[in-house]
Design a protein that fits this description.
single chain; 135 residues; mainly alpha; three-stranded antiparallel sheet; 3 helices; 7% strand
Length: 135
């Protein structure tokens, strides 16, 4: 009977020392190297794939938003430059006062037929409306 009692006490001591909550003990827990469950594998792969796709989509949205902001800033800069150029551009030159060509002088009175025959009088009108006569 002593032997049986001694055997029971030793079994109780050995069973009491084991940690059943330790995840790496064979046959227990998620990290069991002897246990393989396809559902975990596919779930992890799908989770990784989904997070990868979400991350790619988020990066693409950020890239597009930064490009939109860059283009908007460039448009504003060009508009401002155009406004400044227009503001500081040289004013339109006033048309030069029309002058008669050499040999002619301004006159609103045209040559008569007699002047044309007798002295070779010539009269012209410039594009600006100035009448010039060579008598």
């Amino acid at each position: 009977m002593n032997k049986v009692l001694l055997l029971m006490i030793s079994l109780l001591l050995v069973a009491g020392c084991t940690n059943t909550n330790y995840p790496y003990t064979p046959g227990t827990g998620y990290n069991d190297p002897y246990r393989y469950d396809d559902s975990y594998h596919y779930r992890d792969r799908d989770h990784y794939h989904d997070s990868y796709e979400r991350r790619r989509a988020r990066e693409e949205r950020r890239r597009l938003e930064s490009e939109r902001q860059r283009l908007e800033a460039e448009r504003r800069r060009l508009e401002e430059a155009r406004r400044k150029k227009k503001k500081h551009s040289k004013p339109h030159k006033k048309p030069k006062k029309e002058t008669c060509p050499p040999g002619f002088h301004p006159s609103e009175r045209k040559c008569t037929k007699q002047e044309r025959k007798k002295w070779g009088c010539k009269d012209i009108r410039l594009p600006g409306g100035l009448a010039c006569v060579n008598r």
